[in-house]
Amino acid sequence: MKTKKELKAAYKQMKILMGVFQIKNIENNKVLIDHSIDMESKWNRHKIELKFGNHRNRSLQKDWNEYGEESFVFEVLSELKKREEENINYNKELKTLQDIVIEELNIESL
User: Fold this and answer.
1) Closest of 106, 98, 104 to residue 79, by C-alpha
2) pTM of the predicted protein model
């Protein structure tokens, strides 16, 4: 059994993907752009909300209901690397990065 110190060290070594992503409908090319400090968890939340039919984005939910799960893909648009500095507001940085990505790609997000 691992010690508390070993578990803590293993947790620190885990790579959690942080950045900006899109949920894209491959049938009509509509996209939802979002960001998170843990993209996999955020994607799972979106997916669960869509499967239960209660996603906060009505347009995305409508398309999900119409086209089905197989018509949607999760794509990382920009990754943000964790830095050694302390007191970094990653959520603020990710929101700024999301705005930049939307502007650069000239995408209209749902």
Assistant:
1) 98
2) 0.79
